[in-house]
Amino acid sequence: MDATPPAPPLDAVRHGLRFAFGTLTVLPVGPPPRWDRRTARAGMLCAPVAGCVVGLCAAGAGWVLWLLGFGPFLTALGTVVVPVLLSRALHLDGLADVADGLGSGRPAEGALAVMKRSDIGPFGVVALLLTLLAQLGALTELYGAGQRYGLAAAVLCGLVSRTALTLGCRARVPAARPDGLGALVAGSVPQPAAYGAALTTALLATVLAGPVGGCAAVLGLAAAEVLLARCRRRLGGVTGDVLGALAETAGTAALLVATLGTG
């Protein structure tokens, strides 16, 4: 049990925001004053906030490119690049590692060893290409249907992708390794709070992009849950790489569903 005295509510929120932004983005917020389970819990609860800010930055880049006269493809490309830069490509790296680990066909210990390697194998390369192409294609279609569709989708993607992290860190989801970031955050978020964050995200997505936005959020999170179930069976739990893969899966699925609202 964590014997660290609980922080006052406002301090807990502030520490959680610094944990979320410090671990999930390159934005200069400084390290959290404490690196423990309570701060990790608050940080993972604040992950959707960090995702929303990343999505707003991506939408801002898309808005500027649109104003400068760039077409849907190049505007979409700029929108895709911004989250990659703001996250240090951390989630894409996790996606590639998980694809290599699961694709190796090895038992849990062997698959985890594959995921720890610094190189990227063929499964990882294919996963990265398909994911980035799907994001680029979806945003190109959305911007082609109108600027507002592309901008809303950029925010939606950031919000949904990081909410998948909150769900992935809920109680009873174990860590696959005893060390690393995954071990610190795994199981740290109470289930009611995690599901509450998911519901809040779905409601915000509905306000942002209408019923299609709500459906995109729900189906994006559902896609991440399918991957999470697979990783729990194969790997025994979550790692930092698995969490990154969950974020990319949720965000990409949400973008693909959002294209259905442009007809």
Order of helices and strands: HHHHHHHHHHH
Radius of gyration: 18 Å
Number of helical stretches of at least 4 residues: 11
Overall strand count: 0
Unreliable sequence segments? 1-5
Shape: globular
N-to-C CA distance: 53 Å
What is the helix fraction of residues, given as a range? over 70%
- Please state the structural category: mainly alpha
**Mean of residue pLDDT values:** 91
Please state roughly what percent of the residues sit in beta strands, choosing from under 5%, 5-15%, 15-25%, 25-35%, 35-45% or over 45%: under 5%
Q: Could you explain how this protein is built, in words?
A:
By secondary structure, the chain is mainly alpha-helical. Helix content is 76%, strand content 0%. It is globular, with a radius of gyration of 18 Å. The termini are far apart. The model is unreliable at 1-5 (pLDDT under 50). It catalyses: alpha-ribazole 5'-phosphate + adenosylcob(III)inamide-GDP = adenosylcob(III)alamin 5'-phosphate + GMP + H(+); alpha-ribazole + adenosylcob(III)inamide-GDP = adenosylcob(III)alamin + GMP + H(+).
